Amino acid sequence: MDKSRVRILVVGSINMDLVMSLERAPEAGETVLGDSYTYIPGGKGANQAVAAARLGAEVTFCGRVGDDANGEILLENLRKNGVDTAYITKDKDSQTGLAAIPVDATGQNRIIVFPGANGRVSKEDVDKALEQTYDAVMMQLEIPLETVYYTYKKAAEKGIPVILDAGPAMKVDLSRFEGISVISPNESEASAITGIKVQDEESALEAARYLARETKAGYVLIKLGSKGALLYEDGRHEIFPAFKVKAVDTTAAGDSFTAAMTLKMIEYGDIRKAMPYANAVGAICVSRMGAQPSLPTAEDVSEFMAQRGL
Ligand code: ATP
Ligand code: RIB
Prior knowledge:
By secondary structure, this protein is an alpha/beta fold. Helix content is 35%, strand content 24%. The protein binds adenosine-5'-triphosphate and alpha-D-ribofuranose (RIB). Adenosine-5'-triphosphate binds next to α7 and α8.
């Protein structure tokens, strides 16, 4: 393999997404008719792995699938995308993770995740994967929290930069991420972690200050959807605006943004320089349907940016 490529370990979840397009999502107790449905490879971890691989990183995945048909399909899909699956365990005692995702006419989604095998990703799995050398480790919160904390501890001991995409929304023990390189929630995740309702620049900044204080992270990066992202470092902040595109499905926007940011931050040695690229990747992702089919290649991103004079 080409050793000039950035080597990224993703420790995270793999799901089969059952995506249904409908006019609007049902209220509680209501039934609505959908327009179409399809099965699409997803899972926050796998989305980040495939996103980084398509953009040119050398990606290794640590996680679990069930010993079932979906597991096989998802493993094959990762391999096809050039992701090293040597540290993915086929768990005989659980099913592959599944996510039910209704997407409405405005492109907004709602996600219900059945974790299955993702709920059994263990410290031992992580130890094996960390026997190799990496330039960065990316994690999310769709596997057991104790495994996430452990991954950070072990990777930090080895001096590897760790990036936490803090989704899905939940409370975590921030002291367990002390000194992490980057913590990156979206608005609802930042609200859940900090207890501050994040809805505009001011509240995002307040949440970023809170996260920086509690974790002493190198950078806090709050994803703000169509408004772009807020980067906070050492008392200073900057908004990096999103590109204007027509959103058809936001699924995996955050995942692709974090993967692109990680790859380019390592490549350029400068997180600020990575931001327009990450926003471009997020914008392309929202303009396409589904999780992994919407993830751009490096060529797609170059073309997108060139069309905008960048
Ligand atoms: P997900 O739907 O995968 O959970 P997320 O909520 O974690 O996504 P967002 O904050 O919605 O993440 O989006 C991540 C990034 O994608 C944004 O920072 C931005 O760069 C890009 N993005 C999201 N929505 C839009 C949009 N409507 N137009 C342009 N860019 C967008
Ligand atoms: O971030 C999007 C992902 O969240 C989907 O692919 C779904 O599987 C859930 O994990």
